[in-house]
Amino acid sequence: MKKKGLALLMSLLFVSSALLSACGDKGAEKPSGGTEGAASNEPFEITIRHTQVGESKKFRLALLNDVVSKTEEAVPGLKIKLDAVDSEVNRKEKLRGEMAAGKPPEVFDVFGSPDAGVYSKEGLMLDLTPILEELGIKDKFSTLDPFTHEGKIYGLPIGISIEGIFYNKDYFEQKGLTVPKTLAQLEQIAEAIKADGKIPFAQSSKDAWIPLMTTNNLWSYYAGPEVTYGFKTGETKWTDPKVVEGIKKHEEWVEKGYFKKGELGFEYADMRNQIISGEAVMMMDGSWANSVFRDPAQAGDMVGKIGYFNLPPVNEGDPVIVMQDANNGYGFSASVAEDPRKLQAVKEFIKNMWTDEMQLRGLKEDGVLPAMKMDLATMNSTSDDPLMQDIFRGVSEINKSFPAFDALVQADVNTALSMGIQQVIGGELNTEKMLENVQAVQEAANAAEE
Prior knowledge:
Layout: H1 3-12, H2 17-23, E1 44-50, H3 58-74, E2 78-84, H4 87-101, E3 107-111, H5 112-121, H6 129-135, E4 148-149, E5 152-153, E6 156-157, E7 161-168, H7 169-175, H8 183-195, E8 199-202, H9 209-223, H10 227-231, H11 241-255, H12 268-276, E9 280-286, H13 290-293, H14 296-299, E10 306-309, E11 321-325, E12 328-332, H15 340-353, H16 356-366, H17 376-382, H18 386-397, E13 400-402, H19 411-425, H20 431-448
Parallel strand pairs: 1-2, 1-3, 8-9, 11-13
Antiparallel strand pairs: 3-12, 4-5, 6-12, 7-9, 7-10, 7-11
Helix pairs in contact: 1-5, 2-4, 3-15, 3-16, 9-11, 19-20
């Protein structure tokens, strides 16, 4: 293993020995019969690790179950085992442990960048390039960049997403509020909401990635979305004044009481409940959250009363800059190539999952924007839901887009920033000191890759 590759892998795979012990024996094993069973009807099994956990992901799970059924029917002897794991636990603990042991599941939920890049460099992920060419779908995706490394494709995005603000339309109408065109106008709305005894922004910060959606979008407005690309190369620094200004704006919102007290103890679902209950009026989240607000079982009387708009720029008329991402999807173990039957199963899974039908079903039922190329008219005709129309409009208004920061920096830096933003929210550190700490970790991570 090359020194650089080892450094990257060890950085990403920093897990406890207990985790490695627990996960090391759960990966895919080589078939005992070699390649002789390629045309056999003998039972065999593959595991699909997914993160469709909880009420808010029930539609996506139903779609996955249908794909699993179609795949099992098409491959004699195949039994697919579904392994459901929380997204953060899968990414930061379980999958890393399995990769360190060299035994990931045959199919697994994975982030394209940087995770799939690190795993693929160590020969742990299946090269999908020839499979996509064989199936004739290689050029049908909006982008495969997060999963493409050294010209080869190592995973497929399940959809794309943007981040912006969901809001209570009825409340806005009753109070004479309109969608803001600048951050200053957004703050004026927040002040009015606070004065009315309600919470301006629903927020849950027990998992740091949730408040970091707000932080990431703010620093991208103040410093420009290009700044995040430069952290890993050393061309830019976390301590750059404009980055500080953007993150300090988030700190200012915390100090002004725009979020509910105790946010560090709230889970992701709590944030959605704050706006559904009417306790909060706005919420920064990914476009995927629309499925919650369109489901009577989850949103109740708030169905049809939630709208969406992009976080506005600092100055009116400035470019609208929005996180737009295709970084979450499925990867496949390199060991699959050693067993023709498992390879056939993977091909069938891809063939059944990435179709226009499934992409449009994901859009209609789960509100996930298609990862495969699709014109706006088709999307509009698929869903006439007002909230989805708002999101489609949000996509059309984007002048500049960028991937989420954790696709552009090393795992250690992600960890440092995650800890740091929680310390800022908790009042333990100010923005300046926190970013000094993150920059030190950034420089150490950069040096380790030289």
